[in-house]
Amino acid sequence: AQRVTQPEKLLSVFKGAPVELKCNYSYSGSPELFWYVQYSRQRLQLLLRHISRESIKGFTADLNKGETSFHLKKPFAQEEDSAMYYCALRHFGNEKLTFGTGTRLTIIP
Amino acid sequence: NAGVTQTPKFRVLKTGQSMTLLCAQDMNHEYMYWYRQDPGMGLRLIHYSVGEGTTAKGEVPDGYNVSRLKKQNFLLGLESAAPSQTSVYFCASTQPSGSYNEQFFGPGTRLTVL
Predict the structure, then answer these.
(1) CB A86 to CB B96 under 8 A?
(2) What is the secondary structure of A1-29 as a DSSP string?
(3) Is B105 in Cβ contact with A32 (below 8 Å)?
């Protein structure tokens, strides 16, 4: 069964410090993973997808098939990074997403 | 373009009452989804639709029904509301293609069942 695990419900990091939000998955096929973000009073939106291998707002995420992980990283946290972050796994065909339970990131000034 | 809109934004129900949540999208997307968001549970898929006139069950469908009579609208119904259905409900839509297209989310409906 497909599953996405985000072990940290809450994460607090000082401004300027590195950030790492953990995501692990279980999937029988070739996975496609995403990070979605929900800023305060805003709707959920796509942050980045692993196939693009892009950096968005300074965040990167590398798919590690050996460790079945897709951790989100940023070298220097900014206050505007405070938000709820969800890792998600794509289901091919019907485009369903399985979401993790989310990590609330708080950046301490 | 308004994107994905949801009506109403807030609602308080008593146990046993019924209501319908409306989701509308103006992007001509084929696929639409209803999720519920609960603390510590993340987003869970209730029902989804891969086209006008089609619906399918998601992860937590019990107690809900849906209809997709028009491509742009996806309705979520609660026939007899229960306190366990207190949640924030999100609608999303996407247009399928060979590569993944992101799901676009609505602003959410906060529902409280007393």
Answers:
(1) no
(2) --EEE---SEEEEETTS-EEE--EEE-SS
(3) no
